[in-house]
Amino acid sequence: MYDPSSPMLRSGLSDGGLPSPDAKSRFAEDRMLAATIWCEIAPGEVITEADAMERFGLSRAAARAGLMRLGFDGWASPKARMGWEVLPITGQLIGDVLSARRIVEPGLAHVRLTDAALTEMEQIHDILKALSRGGDDAAVSAVRLHVDRIDGLLLGAINPFTARHLRKLWHHSARITHFLEGDSGTLFRRDDVSDLVGAVLQRDAAGIERARLALIDAQERYFLRQLLKNDAPLMPGSGLAARNNHENAATNRRPQ
Asked: What's this model's pTM, rounded to 2 decimal places?
């Protein structure tokens, strides 16, 4: 599932087309991130350097670099004498990601794409129309690939600091989606693409914002439906009480 040509990942080549000196470390970092997003490394799983070396064919130095990068970016946390624990997926995490996207994502409404990017988007739109007639998993995967490219075009046209933050939120959303899809046989389908592309081509800022917020709403509904099918038991402290008590304690500490 790892695509080294993905625009979401960094190139390991120098300007001359040769591998850069840190190419192995960068490949390891991107490979470990891809494995986390695609849930090859399960949420909550503890993974060691030896595990990473065996599973992903990395050297010890590369495995260490990949795991440390996951830790630096908040995808994993070190566990003494155990390894690295990958960030679990919780209801609070899902809610925080969706809330953050509702704040940041409307900024895409103000993108100004180049003529070349607009032409490419029109071509992708034509391809998506043809793919929309297929309802099998292969068609859904193909649609996702082209939709990711649309997102990449939009992301490349905004402030790089905002783009970096939004890219990470999208990575979180993708990981949550892959995890909840699992073996359920129910895949999440994006139905906003035509409205989004039409709004971008017409430079309709309000239309772009509506399309992006509609996607977030659709993902929220999908996440909720999948969670309601989950038969895992809720443990003490997993409800709202723990979070509410924490928030109340923080409020009580504020100076009056």
From this structure: 0.81
